[in-house]
Write a structure and sequence with these properties.
The chain is an alpha+beta fold and 173 residues long. The protein is built from four helices and eight strands. The strands form two sheets. A five-stranded antiparallel beta sheet has the order 7-6-5-4-8. Strands 1-2-3 form a three-stranded mixed beta sheet, with helices on one face. Helix 2 (44-61) links the parallel strand 2 and strand 3. It is globular and about 55 Å long. The protein starts with a helix and ends with a helix.
Length: 173
């Protein structure tokens, strides 16, 4: 069993007790990243308590040899999608993705995630003809993130001049 999966099994009861969802566990290059989520967002007090509890548990169980850095956080607004469950939760959202080298089609795409199942995803790439989709296996994907939409796009042509701005401009001439 790999390190991340061992940690997931150890940390899951702590996350459940803290009433947060264990979103992801990743161990790479000496950094243990534990990502938790909660309806309405995770507050900093919950992250602090969970970090303390996880640190104690890891010290007691010693599942990671050597030194490492522990990071506990929320997935943020633009979430990395790595597991079939992550993708299923994000159906209907806009995503950006990068495929592995050698996968047919564009290597980078921005799209709407139409569906996700145990084998892969179906997307509708931005700019594609209506109804034109692309299906990708999870193994085809190198990196995928959701896109957070900040609000309506600015109106074309930039900001409108106000009467006071026109007066200031005239006074400088």
């Amino acid at each position: 069993m790999e390190t991340a999966e061992r940690i997931r099994l150890l940390v899951a009861p702590l996350a459940e007790a803290a009433e947060v969802d264990l979103y992801d566990v990743e161990f790479t290059e000496g950094v243990l990243r534990i990502t938790v989520d909660q309806a309405g967002g995770v507050d900093m007090a919950a992250v602090h308590r969970l970090t303390r509890d996880i640190s104690r548990l890891i010290d007691e169980q010693d599942p990671i040899p050597g030194h490492f850095t522990l990071e506990v956080s929320s997935p943020g607004l633009e979430r990395a999608l790595r597991t079939p469950d992550h993708f299923s939760r994000s159906v209907g959202e806009r995503i950006t993705l990068k495929t592995r080298a050698g996968v047919p089609g564009d290597r980078r795409a921005t799209a709407t995630l139409l569906s996700a199942d145990a084998d892969g995803i179906t997307i509708e790439p931005d700019g594609a003809e209506p109804g034109q989709t692309r299906t990708l296996a999870y193994d085809d994907l190198e990196r995928v993130r959701t896109i957070f939409e900040w609000g309506p796009a600015p109106k074309p042509g930039g900001p409108k001049s106000t009467p006071s701005a026109k007066k200031n401009k005239a006074a400088k001439s």
